[in-house]
Amino acid sequence: MRPVIKCLSIAAVLFCSNIACSQKKTIWGETANPKKNDTISFVNGLMGIKYYEQPVLESEVVGGKFKINAYLPYPQMYFLSWKSQKADVLFHASPFFLDDSASKITAGESSCETDSRSFLEFQKEFVPYMLDGTGFTDISDYMFGDGSGFDLKLARYTSQKPDSYVALWLLIRRFNENGYCSLYGEMLNRFSKKVKSERLWMVLNGEFKSIAIKEGGKFPELALRDSDLKLGILRIPKAQYTLIDFWFSRCRPCLEQLPLLKEIYADYNSKGFNIVGISTDKTANVEIWKKRIAEKEIPWQNYLDENAVIAAREKIFSYPTNFLLDKNGRILKKNIDPQELQKFLTENLKK
């Protein structure tokens, strides 16, 4: 029986491999420069690889021609990367979309076009809708120049087109860049039953559920090191309001806001306000973190999330990131700026 079982096992593997191969689609491409020789890659950028069937697609370009073999059970969002540019540009900011309707790709120096349904939606529907009335002419400039405005408009687009993979991918991108916010959670639930039944939505939904630091929820107990590098559990100090501030020692915006934060702390600490700092410094910079605390005379308790392990898990990638808590440790607001914080405390605490 064993030889038969072995043969059947091999046959099953070959059968599955043939299915996988048959599901791959060959897409032919050309470059704007017909004589270009290089290596072209379509990459996941800063997006988690778990969203992708193939996080990287790559091909040699010879005489301006190339071909991609891609497995596309659902639309995929990629970013263009050239081997010749890697020293200066890892990948370009403009996204493009591939799906099983694609038959050709045209690659420029910093962007790509394709005839896929999802890219045509992005180009002809999504971009005009998002940019209309904004004063921006580029979707990436809008995203980073007015993030809150972009998110509100993305939410409206999602409501109007709940089957849109373009909208879902842009939500994934915003979530991976900015972390959790209540609007993103609302957007996630606006997609159609069809989209919710498919893998990409379910992966994102799983990531949303894994986030522990959420507006409206209680700030979790975190295992962190104190300034003596002793490991312990962060306990939120007893106060009417507490600001949890994620920062690191070489973060210029973090250091620039310190004087005003120290002023606010001095004015309101005795009235029921506290601050807790959580550094995400790398192991090599721990001594610099300690030095910053001393030289900047930071008066509040500081902890270390070494190598940003917890921050990355919580999708905290931009700094400073803060959370304002009430007396019960419930998160009232994410990313309150010092001026807004000062106004809030003036209205809610007696100076």
How would you sum up this structure, described in words?
This protein has 351 residues and is of the alpha+beta class. 39% of the residues lie in helices and 23% in strands. The protein has 13 helices and 15 strands. The chain has helices at residues 2-23, 117-131, 139-145, 147-160, 165-178, 182-188, 193-196, 199-210, 252-256, 258-268, 286-295, 309-313, 338-348; strands at residues 24-31, 38-43, 56-61, 65-71, 76-82, 95-98, 104-107, 112-114, 223-226, 231-233, 241-247, 273-279, 301-304, 321-325, 331-334. The chain has a 7-stranded mixed beta sheet, covered by helices on one side. A hairpin with a 5-residue loop joins β14 (321-325) and β15 (331-334). α4 packs antiparallel against α5, α4 (147-160) runs parallel beside α6 (182-188) and α10 runs parallel beside α13 (338-348). It is elongated. Mean pLDDT is 91; it is low at 1-22.
